Amino acid sequence: MMRSSDKRSVLPGSEWLLAALTAICVSAVLFWIDLSPRVESDFFFSPEDPQLQAAQEISRLFPSPELVVIRAAAPDIRSDEYAELVRRLTAELDTVTGVSGVTSIANEDERRSPVYSRLLLTPNDDATNIIVSGYDPDPADFVPRLEAVWELYESDDFSLDISGVPYVIELIRRNLLRDLVLFSSAAFLIFGTLVSLVYRNWRIVLGTISTCLTACAVTLFVTNLLDIKIGLLTANIAVIVFVLTLSHIVFMTSNWRRCCQELDDRQADPVSAAVRITLQASFWCMLTTLLGFLSLLIATARPLRELGIAGAIGTLTAIIVTYGLYPTFLRCIPQSGRQSARRFFGKTGSFLPEANGNRWLLAIAGVVLVAAVGLRQFNTDPSLLSYFAPGSELRDGLEVIDNDGG
């Protein structure tokens, strides 16, 4: 029998109404908000950075197109077949929308000057370069048009590698979008499965997933209203908010479980008691996380500042949505479910063995010391290429072009 306090605080089927609200929020995000990451050539710099301002002034005085370098390799670059392929590829690239010019051995004599020799020939004499210049401001449109052309010509006997600022930006954007989908899906599946295994109650699982997804959706809406797009560091903001929300939920559920054990059916509502117990700790955890994100606002790099703003919004959203939605799911659990919680948690207790004084403290200290040995192996000044996975399309193109022409 449900207590009178529960009847006044929750309507039958409220969990489904809140789940429907979550579905509407998520659908609205997918429909109205552009989740494709935005990457620009100056994404590492602040608009107030003096070096960036100087570079922009030079670009304004001496405008120049963006360059894409295509390295065309073949067993015999002196053959007529190779020259014909380069000629046809050059002509085809020159017809692409956004291309202002194409330079290759098909339309320029590489022996005319050291400049052309340096640009078009490679040190190993097994390939030549094709220089594509263009003015298209959007690499997401420009690069696929180039790829559609050079993919038609690439073969085992005519190997093509491509690099350049527009191409690198587009590949980074694609990788960020892939990571956004991958990590968001992984967080949903992994944490959803763990919550199911630990609590064994479908209302708790539904409440956890609904609350976390709602917090993520609200965060994306607010950041979009503030014109903070998905970028280099904010690509995983949804996963960050998901985890922040989940932390509040875990502690609230744990306290609710304890209140179910300690309070009998005639005493106060265990959900209200759990909220009172958890709120103070949640607030201080939220505050420290919020200050950490706000500290990023003093950084000069724009991605760090955007991460600070988005993280601060997500931190506030996580605690507000958690305490606004999740208690309703707990109140929807019938009295039989609370009795099951008493029996299950009273029997199993914690999944971790009880700390046995100094034994566990020494074990943790030992793990920390072993891990500290790896600090000496940290590379504090990595090269640009080390940021990209070996064997990836992006790194291979950068390495090949860098070795040939810098």
SSE layout and pairing:
Elements: H1 4-9, H2 14-32, H3 50-61, E1 66-73, H4 80-94, E2 99-103, H5 114-120, E3 127-134, H6 139-153, E4 159-164, H7 165-199, H8 202-225, H9 237-262, H10 270-294, H11 302-331, H12 335-348, H13 358-372, H14 393-404
Antiparallel strand pairs: 1-3, 1-4, 2-3
Helix pairs in contact: 2-8, 4-6, 6-7, 7-8, 7-9, 8-9, 8-11, 9-10, 9-11, 9-12, 10-11
Brief summary of the model shown:
This protein has 406 residues and is of the alpha+beta class. It has 14 helices and four strands.
Key terms:
single chain, disordered N terminus, alpha+beta, 406 residues, four-stranded antiparallel sheet, 4 strands, 14 helices, 7% strand
Task: Give a description of the structure.
By secondary structure, the protein is an alpha+beta fold. It has helices spanning 4-9, 14-32, 50-61, 80-94, 114-120, 139-153, 165-199, 202-225, 237-262, 270-294, 302-331, 335-348, 358-372, 393-404, and strands at 66-73, 99-103, 127-134, 159-164. The model is unreliable at 1-8 and 346-355 (pLDDT under 50).
Distance between the termini: 76 Å
Order of helices and strands: HHHEHEHEHEHHHHHHHH
The main β sheet shows up as: 4 strands, antiparallel
Shape: elongated
Weakly predicted, low-confidence segments: 1-8, 346-355
